[in-house]
Specification:
The complex is a heterodimer. By secondary structure, chain A is an all-alpha fold. Chain A contains five helices and no strands. By secondary structure, chain B is α/β, with parallel strands linked by helices. Classes of the chains: A mainly alpha, B alpha/beta.
């Protein structure tokens, strides 16, 4: 079975053109953002604010793609799609949000190691 | 380029800003639509790169607002989003965006898109520059058009332009005056329906098709009745109006009213004919007059002859003698030249008349005159005339006393030697030569007469000079 890629900083490094400080700063912003957004998504789900959840995962997906966190982007994109197609399916969304939390933790952990 | 980057995701904002700055673009970042809108109102950006989903004013709304305010400088607007769906691009473009990108932004893609943006903006600048030039040219053309239009309108000769179907396009003031129709009354109407009466439309139609079928018609005389009944004489010239590709798209028709000129020509022709007739008549009259003049001249000459000559002998008469003597004496006086006169008398003429009758007497006088005439003709400026009765007189300019005596002798011998059928005829001669003492005409003639008297007294048929008289000799 193919191993999931949580972090791939090659694009970010390419953009930084050897500027590791830039890479670290972006990763730090991403982590701060994720640390704030992932719990917020859980809270919104509890309040059945699906629109709010969709906004958060969309923004997190963008950040994940920008920094080089493909697995997190995939999970965010799946949740976004689910919310767009089945807004009343609370059960699957909660499962997905759990997956989101796990993916975020792994991603964050790998990023901490990489930075 | 000066770029406004808008994204609420700080990670995306940071990475895209870095990508753009790597290519030396100047980037201003905004994390929401409101700040971006304020920035756009404050300053000009060549490119806006905006995330679609933003809190408050989203990317599409930002684009719509920007397009709504317009402005002289075009801003290239790129929307990007992480959301999937093929309809998103069409929606963004429809809102006024120039380009659409999906996240994650791949640097090479963004560079390529910025290059396109730069190219489009350059083209846009060029278009704007051209547009300004076109606007200026348009202004120049407008002025030029107005001038040409004014010139056409105020041309002193009637000019009309027609399209390729013969419909009137332009009609100047002189045409309005000639045809008494305003431009709005004739515009887009067939020329033949406007300018002539219904009876002459065929001729006008032929003119239109001839004008459209050739490059030029020069000075064609044209005279047809107009709609209002007038019948002016027009001199028509046309030239083809062509498109840039050379196709005939109409014709300009110039019409010079030469009615007045034609009338004058007719009048002139009549006058010329009249003048010619008059001239011929004058010629006839002149010939008649010349004839009469010649007759008069002849008459005058005859009268002159009658006035100056003697009717019997044909010699000069006494009147002419007096005139000639006066001239000869004046010349002698002024030039100091000699002058002599001879007075002669046919001897015993009275007995001739008594014995043979007056007719024979007249014949004797004619013969004596003929002899004298022949002799005088051989002298230099000599004059012979009948003095009266049977007396004759000769004037001899330049003749001295002796020369005069010699000539008198010639005359005398001439008479004596002539054959006379009735009896011998002789003549006596008295001669005088001018001198200051004989400067009076009467005295001068009287001197010759005295000499003649002496010649007769001393036996007739001889010549005596005044200075040979005894009393003069003594003097």
């Amino acid at each position: 079975m193919e191993r999931c890629v949580y972090v791939d900083l090659s694009s970010l490094r390419e953009i930084g053109r050897g500027d590791e400080e830039f890479v670290r700063a972006v990763i730090q912003r991403f982590q701060e953002s994720g640390d704030k957004l992932v719990p917020e998504a859980g809270e919104r789900a509890k309040n059945q604010d699906w629109g709010g959840v969709a906004q958060i995962v969309h923004r997190l997906k963008g950040s994940a793609l920008a920094v080089g966190a493909p697995q997190l982007a995939i999970v965010c994109g799946a949740i976004e799609d689910d919310l767009r197609t089945q807004s009343e399916a609370t059960e699957p969304i909660s499962m997905s949000l759990e997956c989101l939390v796990q993916t975020w933790e792994k991603t964050s952990s790998e990023l901490a190691g990489a930075a | 380029m000066r770029i406004l980057l808008v994204d609420d995701d700080p990670v995306s904002l940071a990475t895209v800003q870095r990508v753009l700055e790597n290519e030396q673009h100047s980037v201003m970042c905004c994390s929401n639509g409101e700040d971006a809108w304020l920035a756009l109102q404050r300053e000009n950006f060549e490119v806006v790169l905006s995330d679609w989903f933003l809190p408050g004013i989203d990317g599409l709304e930002l684009c719509r607002r920007l397009r709504g305010i317009g402005g002289p400088i075009y801003t290239y607007f790129v929307i990007f989003t992480a959301i999937e769906g093929s309809d998103k691009m069409a929606e963004a473009i429809s809102a006024g965006a120039d380009d659409f990108l999906r996240k994650p932004i791949i640097p090479a893609d963004l560079y390529a898109r910025m290059e396109i943006a730069q190219r489009v903006l350059r083209m846009n600048d060029e278009v704007r520059r051209k547009s300004v030039e076109m606007e200026q040219l348009g202004g120049v053309l407008q002025v030029s058009n107005r001038r040409i239009s004014e010139m056409f309108r105020n041309l002193p000769i009637p000019v009309v332009t027609i399209g390729d179907e013969g419909l009137i396009m332009e009609w100047n003031s002189a045409a309005e005056s000639l045809f008494r129709l305003k431009t709005h009354e004739v515009w887009m109407k067939p020329l033949w329906e406007v300018i002539v009466s219904s009876r002459n439309q065929r001729a006008a139609r032929e003119l239109v098709w001839a004008a459209l079928g050739t490059d030029m018609i020069a000075n064609e005389s044209w005279c047809y009745t107009l709609r209002d009944g007038r019948k002016p004489h027009l001199m028509i010239s046309t030239f083809a109006l062509k498109s840039p590709t050379g196709d005939v798209i109409g014709s300009a028709i110039c019409m010079v009213d030469i009615t007045q000129q034609k009338r004058l020509e007719r009048e002139l022709k009549v006058e010329l004919k009249r003048s010619k007739d008059l001239s011929q008549s004058l010629e006839v009259k002149t010939e008649e007059l010349q004839g009469k003049n010649m007759a008069l001249q002849e008459l005058s000459e005859q009268l002159e002859l009658l006035a100056t000559t003697d009717g019997l002998t044909g010699l000069n008469n006494y009147r002419t003698f007096k005139k000639k003597l006066n001239e000869a004496m004046t010349q002698a006086r002024e030039q100091g030249m000699p002058l002599s006169i001879i007075l002669t008398d046919v001897d015993k003429f009275k007995t001739f008349n008594d014995e043979f009758g007056h007719l024979v007497g007249d014949e004797v006088l004619r013969k004596v005159a003929a002899i004298f005439k022949t002799k005088i003709a051989r002298t230099d400026h000599g004059f012979i005339g009948r003095y009266g009765g049977e007396e004759f007189v000769a004037i001899l300019p330049h003749a001295t006393r002796d020369e005069a005596l010699e000539f008198a002798e010639i005359l005398r011998a001439g008479v004596e030697k002539e054959h006379w059928p009735w009896r011998q005829v002789t003549s006596s001669f008295g001669i005088a030569t001018w001198s200051p003492e004989l400067d009076d005409e009467e005295e001068f003639v009287k001197a010759a007469d005295t000499a003649l008297y002496h010649a007769k007294e001393s036996g007739r048929n001889r010549s005596w000079h005044f200075d040979q008289l005894p009393q003069n000799k003594a003097a």
